[in-house]
Amino acid sequence: MPDIRGSIHGQWSSRFVFILAAVGSAVGLGNIWKFPYITGENGGGAFVVVYLICIALIGVPIMMAEILIGRRGRQSPINTMHALVADEKAHPAWRWLGWLGVLTGFLILSYYSVIAGWALAYVFRAGAGLFAGANAESVSTLFGALLDSPESMLAWHTIFMVMTMAVVARGVRSGLERAVTILMPALFALLVVLVLYALYAGDFARGAAFLFNPDFDKVFQHCELLESGVESCRFSGEPLLIALGHAFFTLSLGMGAIMVYGSYMPGNASIARATLTIVAADTAAALLAGLAIFPIVFANGLEPAAGPGLIFQTLPIAFGAMPGGQVFGTLFFVLLVFAAWTSAISLIEPAVAWLVENRGMARVPAALAVGAPAWVLGVGSVLSFNLWSGESFQFFGKTWFDLVDYLTANILLPLGGLLIALFAGWVMSRAASRGELRMGDGVGYRTWRFLVRYVSPWLVVIVFLNAIGLL
Ligand code: PFF
């Protein structure tokens, strides 16, 4: 079927480049920084099982839905939704889906840039040889010094945001294509080296058991010791919501990032095959990161539930002890910055593409118009780790950083994903989705349609209801 529309922003030069760009968006801090620390906080194996189920039953069908919507609309998510609403004669309220995505991406970028700033700071710490002979105490002091200095966190946050705006301003194709082609494979190679190191020097058996042995009681039973001395246990669905939210976050789903990249995808590429490749790469990156980190955590008596600082307090110990650690450590943090960079770009591309389409803006002012306010909001996250960490600055027991992270990853992304699934499964005609997926009417198409209509949306709703205590 010929393309109905063409994108004014250009097209990826091949289907392989689309896959690389989408992997660039998906693989980022979510895999290497967030996955290990939330797995650590949520008790390990059983959490990982739930996360993998979410990836397979929700992530895969919704990614296909998002790419197909993007490629059919060939515009920024906001205008794509306008166009498809007209094509399908759908209710005009569906247009808000594009706006929801823009808001979510903007909020995520505000704190994503702060954490990427930590990775930037660590490039120089590793390069200066500060990890040599490091132990649990020294790395924690080093990390604490970064958190205690709002000035330096702000400086790194600023540098990262400028880097992101610079690439988006140049257009996503130039620059990004080349960066992803070389750097993504390098990141994977280095993760494998780290896993091998963990196998040799860490407590690999315990690390792997923590990651893969599911103990459902440990994850879902929350027990308290009552005053009477009796222990009271109840089921808590919170880890389910966190695993679900992370499935969306790590695959960049639910906010239009993959949709906008899909709008630049060549018309003849297979969406199903691209999706499976992207999901496999993303999952592999997260599991490799887990296998590199937990053996080191256990071998050094560190706390798996250490929170957002986990990788910054474990990996330096490994780099400090391994031969060539100074070079490896520097390279690792450089690659982590690149992984974060290629993800951050996709966070603002939907908004920037819209400003170019509808406001006739050039890309440079458009990138600034989105990046600058995100930077300002990010200051709240910088301060969450120092001046605003106290209770008087907390809302619902969470710092600003925790709140924005919770709201975006656990509520806005799943909500966006739910609406995307409903739109692709129920609102778009069979002919439209089948034509765009180009997979005929066989088992593949029918399985996808069944999942996106009946399975993914219901799972999201059940997890939501459970988390707010209604189920
Ligand atoms: N997937 C990215 C990561 O795992 O770090 C984060 C992200 C990028 C989330 C783009 C959402 C998005 F639209």
Protein model, in words:
The protein is built from 19 helices and two strands. Strand 1 (221-225) and strand 2 (231-235) form a beta hairpin. With 471 residues, the protein is mainly alpha-helical. The protein is 74% helix and 2% strand. It binds 4-fluoro-L-phenylalanine. The site of 4-fluoro-L-phenylalanine has 16 residues, from helix 1, helix 2, helix 5, helix 11 and helix 15.
Notable traits:
471 residues; mainly alpha; two-stranded antiparallel sheet; 2 strands; 2% strand; globular; binds 4-fluoro-L-phenylalanine
Architecture blueprint of SSEs:
Layout: H1 15-26, H2 29-41, H3 45-73, H4 77-88, H5 96-127, H6 136-147, H7 150-170, H8 176-201, H9 204-212, H10 216-220, E1 221-225, E2 231-235, H11 238-250, H12 257-262, H13 271-299, H14 310-321, H15 325-359, H16 363-384, H17 400-427, H18 430-437, H19 443-467
Helix pairs in contact: 1-8, 1-13, 1-15, 2-11, 2-13, 3-4, 3-9, 3-11, 3-13, 3-17, 3-19, 4-5, 5-7, 5-15, 5-16, 5-17, 6-14, 7-15, 7-16, 8-13, 8-15, 9-13, 11-17, 11-19, 13-14, 14-15, 15-16, 17-19
4-fluoro-L-phenylalanine binds at residues 25-26, 28-31, 105, 108, 249-250, 252, 255, 257, 343, 346-347.
